[in-house]
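Lecture notes, part 5. Sequence design as translation. It can be helpful to think of inverse folding as translation between two languages: the language of shapes and the language of residues. The source text, in structure tokens, appears below.
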């Protein structure tokens, strides 16, 4: 099964590029930029990656990205993940990035965009890897700030596939960002949002009703509401489920208790992603292997999950057809 999963052309719809920062690269960038880290060694950093909940993770996630200062740092961050993912048989990644987390530290949007776009262009030209760009907004920051960032990003609108909504979910309902998402829609941008990870099923309904999203990131708590499940099924809204993330952040106690099999039974449009692979124990292949072990899924299920992801990925139609064909031959 491992060999099948390795060569299967896999598509990742939910990946925070800042969450792909491996401790090894963190140390390298800290040295390059003269920054002191709170860890003495790579092993010490890895040992600190034990989380009680989403907020516990976010604290280390924002701390870790402090080493990202220059255009080259953002390029190196993305290229490091793209190369690793490609070696694991990933053929497309829709990448979230968090401009506010960098602006707050005095890193201009131009620096972030130049580095990430250069890595995307190089990956697409040399790695047989396509990359989508999702500008994500931090839901625990003010809505007015997010609107300002979106307006200031005007030179980059043409490079964006979508906007997203991430960070601390509880008490930051989709409603807070209705104006931001309306503006993104006016600009012709697709919308996606994290919902139903730590927040309740109602946040999923709100994201659909008030933000007009095309995808729900996570969405696992939809099972707490029959009516939300019914809506997701009827519209075949894609869920970007992140199994090892949910275990790390204690959304579930262990993978065997994960609602993934139930989500499939409900005929929802499920996909698998890694979320923050440097913090949650591995990338897309590791998530696939873990699911094979926990749920005993066969090859057809993994083909279906990646067919779902290809159908929803931010790619042009010729790339989509190519990926669908490669999937069926795998
Ligand atoms: O798993 C996540 N959830 C919410 N926000 C995030 N930002 C990075 N990773 C995550
Ligand atoms: Zn996420």
């Amino acid at each position: 099964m491992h060999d099948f999963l390795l060569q299967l052309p896999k598509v990742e719809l939910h990946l925070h590029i800042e969450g792909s920062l491996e401790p090894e690269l963190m140390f390298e960038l800290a040295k390059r930029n003269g920054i002191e880290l709170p860890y003495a060694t790579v092993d010490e950093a890895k040992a600190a990656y034990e989380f009680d909940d989403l907020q516990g993770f976010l604290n280390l996630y924002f701390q870790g990205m402090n080493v990202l200062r220059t255009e080259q740092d953002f390029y190196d961050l993305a290229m490091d993940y793209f190369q690793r993912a490609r070696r694991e048989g990933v053929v497309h990644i829709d990448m979230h990035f968090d401009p506010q987390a960098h602006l707050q530290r005095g890193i201009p949007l131009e620096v972030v965009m130049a580095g990430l776009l250069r890595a995307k262009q190089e990956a697409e030209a040399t790695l047989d890897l396509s990359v989508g760009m999702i500008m994500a907004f931090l839901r625990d920051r003010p809505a007015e700030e997010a609107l300002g960032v979106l307006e200031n990003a005007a030179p980059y609108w043409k490079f964006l596939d979508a906007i997203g909504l991430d960070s601390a979910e509880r008490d930051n309902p989709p409603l807070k960002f209705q104006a931001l998402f309306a503006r993104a829609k006016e600009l012709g941008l697709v919308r996606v949002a994290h919902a139903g990870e730590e927040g309740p099923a109602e946040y999923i309904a709100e994201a659909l009703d008030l933000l007009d999203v095309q995808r729900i990131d996570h969405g696992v708590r939809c099972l707490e509401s029959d009516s939300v499940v019914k809506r997701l099924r009827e519209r075949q809204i894609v869920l970007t489920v992140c199994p090892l993330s949910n275990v790390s952040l204690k959304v579930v106690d262990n993978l065997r208790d994960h609602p993934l099999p139930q989500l499939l039974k409900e005929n929802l449009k499920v996909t698998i992603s890694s979320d923050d692979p440097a913090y949650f124990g591995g990338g897309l292949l590791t998530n696939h292997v873990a699911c094979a072990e926990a749920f005993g899924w066969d090859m057809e299920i993994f083909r279906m999950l990646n067919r779902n992801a290809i159908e929803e990925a931010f790619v042009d139609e010729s790339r989509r057809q190519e990926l669908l064909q490669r999937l069926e031959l795998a």
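The translated text above is only one of many valid answers, since several sequences can fold into similar shapes. The chain has a mean pLDDT of 98.
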